[in-house]
Structures are given as C-alpha cells and as structure tokens.
Recover the amino acids of this structure.
C-alpha cells in the first residue's frame, strides 16, 4: 500500500514558528541553563531547529515531480 504523508510538514512548520516565537522572547530558557550542554549557549537547540527546517524543505520537495533529483543540484 502506498501513502502520501507529506502534509505532516505543516506540523513541523507550526512547531518551528512556535519555537521561533519562544526563542525570540527567550521564554523558558532559564530551565535549559541548568543543563551542562546549555550553560554557555543554545546552539544545540538552534541546530535542531535548522534540522527540522531541512526536513520541512525535503517534504516540500517531495511533492514536486523533480524530487528524484532533489538535493543533487548545486545550491
């Protein structure tokens, strides 16, 4: 059975928008400062956000007919 689940990208997009709002206001970040990995900066969170954006981009690319060659072109 074949299925198309590319619409899940809308969930990831909403999550990124919410993250961006919280990050801009620096909401709830004081809890993360207690962890060793976040003592100096929040690069780990920001890198994770970038990875989710890449996932969104790939889901969008998967809806186009040229998806088979997506990611092979020079950017």
């Amino acid at each position: 059975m074949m299925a198309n689940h590319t619409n899940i990208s809308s969930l990831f997009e909403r999550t990124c928008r919410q993250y961006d709002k919280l990050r801009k206001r620096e909401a709830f970040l004081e809890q993360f400062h207690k962890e060793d990995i976040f003592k100096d900066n929040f690069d780990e969170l920001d890198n994770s956000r970038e990875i989710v954006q890449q996932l969104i981009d790939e889901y969008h690319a998967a809806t186009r007919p040229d998806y088979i060659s997506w990611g092979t072109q020079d950017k």
Notes: The helical segments are 9-25, 29-32, 43-62. Residues 37 and 44 are 8 Å apart (CA to CA). Residues 43-62 form the longest helix (20 residues). The two ends are 34 Å apart (CA to CA).
